[in-house]
Amino acid sequence: DSQELKDVFNAKTKAIIFNNPNNPLGKVFSRGEIQEICDLCQQHDVLMISDDVYEHMVFEDHKMIRVAEFPGMWDRTITIGSAGKTFSVTGWKLGWAFGPEHLIKNCQVVHQNCVYACPTPIQEAVARAFELEMTRLDSPDCYFRSISVDLERKRDFISKILDNVGMKPVIPEGGYFIMADWSQLADRIDLSSESDEQRDYRFVKWLSKNRKLQGIPPSAFFSKPHKYIGEDYIRFCFIKHDDSLKKAEEILNNWRKELN
Q1: Could you read off the pLDDT of 230-253 as tens digits, one per residue?
Q2: 143-165 vs 242-259: helix crossing angle, rounded to 10
């Protein structure tokens, strides 16, 4: 909502964190939408922290557009990337930040006194991965290209099985998570065994304990006054081996038969 965004910018606004493609919704922002955000940053002299960790996971005709490309934004933007997300090795916890010297030097101070150092073997492995992929950027075999093709197929698969069980999936345009509205099933599930305040937490725990299928409660992404927004939804990760996705299909199909 453009007006809602404008209303929260004021003289006290120092920085904005912009995640594109967005987690958890999987929205990929258009050039026009990004331009609106950039205009507000420049109007109010606001720092932009651009979280681009899902930059290579964009589906269909959507395009990843970087904030730092926009006129007047390079000098006020720190762009964040992630080896864990880019190369599907999230346990490595290795990433990077780039931007103008006057911003990056402050990041270096924080890094020096917080993380201090990253494991050298992991840094070397990521460097070699980049060296390989940079030699074949125009090839369909390039990992930066093939990952979107693979994930789009997995996204379509999980969307179909969620729809079949009675949930309403929100089809992501990027990333590897999918949100689904489970509210139509609420009156057919007894969640009295769970005591959490938010009903999406109760549903996620019930599903994990009783059907051995793990999701994430989206209300975790919201501040206290806004948690209600996520309570009708559950988030699933679909960057999984096909056999794991087929097992999820089996679980949900069996559950659907019980519901009917």
Answers
A1: 999 999 999 999 999 999 999 999
A2: 10
What is the dihedral sign for C-alpha 42, 43, 47, 48? negative
Residue 218 dihedral angles phi and psi, to the nearest 5°: -65, -20
CA distance 80 to 82: 7
- CA gap 187, 166 in Å, rounded: 12
Q: How far apart are alpha carbons 204 and 176 in whole angstroms?
A: 19
Is residue 164's pLDDT more than 90?
A: yes
Say if residue 259's pLDDT is above 90: no
Round to whole Å and give the CA distance between 208 and 241.
19
Give Cα 221 to chain centroid, integer Å: 11
Per-residue pLDDT at 260: 80
One-letter amino acid at 166 equals G
